[in-house]
Amino acid sequence: MSEPAALWARPIPASQTHTPATATSRLAPAFLQGRVGVGAEPIPLQTFAGSEFMEAARTNTDGFDAQDQIEGNPNMGSLWGVPSLLVVPMALAWLYKRWAAMRQPQGAQHFFSPDAHCTVDVSALESPAVSMATVTGERTQQYVLSMDDLVSLCKRRGFVYQASDLYGGFAGFWDYGPLGVELKNQIKAKWWKKMVQLRDDVVGIDSAIIGSPKVWEASGHLAGFSDPMVDCKESNQRFRADQVLYSAVLDAEGKQCGYVSCQQDEVSNEKALAKKAKKLVKEAGGKGPHQPLNFKELIDCPVELIDQIPSPATGNPGTLTPPRDFNLMFSTNVGPVVADSSTAFLRPETAQGIFTNFKNVMDTSRVSLPFGIAQIGKAFRNEITPRNFIFRSREFEQMEIEYFIKEDDWERCHQEWLDTMHKFLMETCGLRPELVGTEVHAQDKLAHYARACTDLTFHFPFGEQELLGVAARGCYDLTQHANASGRKLEVNDQQTKTKFIPHVIEPSLGVDRLFLAVLCSAYDEDEIGGEKRTVLRFSPEIAPVKVLVLPLVKNNEDIMGRAKDLFERLRMRWNCTMDITGAIGRRYRRGDEAGVPFCVTVDFDSLEDGTVTVRDRDSTEQKRVSEDELIAELTKAIDGY
Ligand code: ATP
């Protein structure tokens, strides 16, 4: 399981939600975490004496290693080999050099990366020898999340394991552990509740994963569900041509000195790319620094240029093949005979099962336009480059709605579904607003039948990527199936007494992608009583475990008995756990790391007065509540009513 050590600082100002949030630094995370403050004007928040800095640095070797990678400075790693007295001046000298190089007229500048949105007042660092450094910031908190941290947390706490782990894993497939399956089920259940059960105009179905191949022929998937693929002949790696970016490198005088390339989610690693560009200019005998890089997708690269583009795998030109189409559908054989005629496909999306059941639902349910059919289910795509943990896998789940409408209503309904989806992400799933963005697909990039498509994006640690799409697909799918099957897929217009094939709006969301976004958004680190804590701030509505019941001591029968009774009552309503081992603080931390929003402690006072302590995960505040009122209070906090 090797994930890129993507680094992520947060939060990102709402005004900049379209900027990819990657490539920041972990230099001395203690410098960053929780020590950067709010204010339009940079406010000095934390003054580090040399010794404090040294301590921060000493306890964060990890950060220096990561910084090392970013800067490509082999000497920084050896900081830890030098006597500690040298650490402060060396580190301050380095900081000074780094920050002064980025200084803006006001003396403040983005910290490490334009995406970190943390400013540094370099005036306090005029001399590398000063023993004080002042860090100022624009936002309340600054935390760092790496995909490696997240992947290891997921494994450690039983959220996600690599599939076939015993055998070294299987690329593009993932298994969900005890906490993971609960979180996933919560996401799906809440989506179903909000999109189907609480609406009068949407009904649900559950269609087969394998259907007639004729479905995929009619829908166009057989001929066209492909991604453009390029191979690197040297490394034998495959890439999606629309996810490889390249740029010409021009020297100061405009002379072309070669090309640089990278995968889409590496483009924010500007430093590494600039370094390569600098090298190319030098090797080509070019003049001055290189001009800004201007990236394009490899799919748009003229074929005659392909030989000059370096492979993202090796950095060497001349090894990439021209892009060619690769169909993403997994095939299998149905029945005892393996022959072309028995070939069938695992569905690459749940949507077609909805279209093919349109008539069944119309005939058997009391629905009339506008109405939607929803489905949650597995989809399979033989992705060329499954990457970034569960973001892009070969087996995943989708939650899709086909909302059937009259043609004239498409713009209004498209916007309404975008708003509905946005609200679901914010209010139900608790995604942090500053991490969610919007991307409107350009008209010339839309499928020929589509009117519009807008993605809601999320700032993952590896960059801003599509989380869900809301597409206005015209009447293409139903028309195709009507033509191919010879069946009428029309509705009556009561007003005009005519029949027509409805148009459709399709909100389509990946469960696994949302799962990852929920984890990224919830992941937090803070300090409680001087002790570092990792906490998953899931919204109570989707938290995998809602309540953790804690008997104060395990060797008192009365306390244990009372706690067990309470636990039995609570688990009838929600997924709850009971933890009896270890000090209470340690048990709180375990709950925090699993994202449990409420801990309920039964103690000696409970035996006397029938009250328990309810501790809030986020604020860590505790309050006494009578057992009689507990369920009502928790219901309000968890279910919102
Ligand atoms: P991408 O451009 O990222 O490949 P897409 O535009 O092909 O995605 P759609 O066909 O619109 O995706 O699928 C709808 C949703 O299904 C996506 O928004 C995403 O949430 C999810 N999804 C698609 N492909 C994958 C995958 N390989 N792994 C996990 N989720 C996926």
From TrEMBL:
Superkingdom in the source lineage: Eukaryota
GO biological process: glycyl-tRNA aminoacylation; mitochondrial DNA replication
EC number: 6.1.1.14
Any one GO CC term of the record: mitochondrion
GO molecular function: ATP binding; glycine-tRNA ligase activity
Family stated for the protein in its record: Belongs to the class-II aminoacyl-tRNA synthetase family.
Name of this protein: glycine--tRNA ligase
Gene source species: Eutreptiella gymnastica
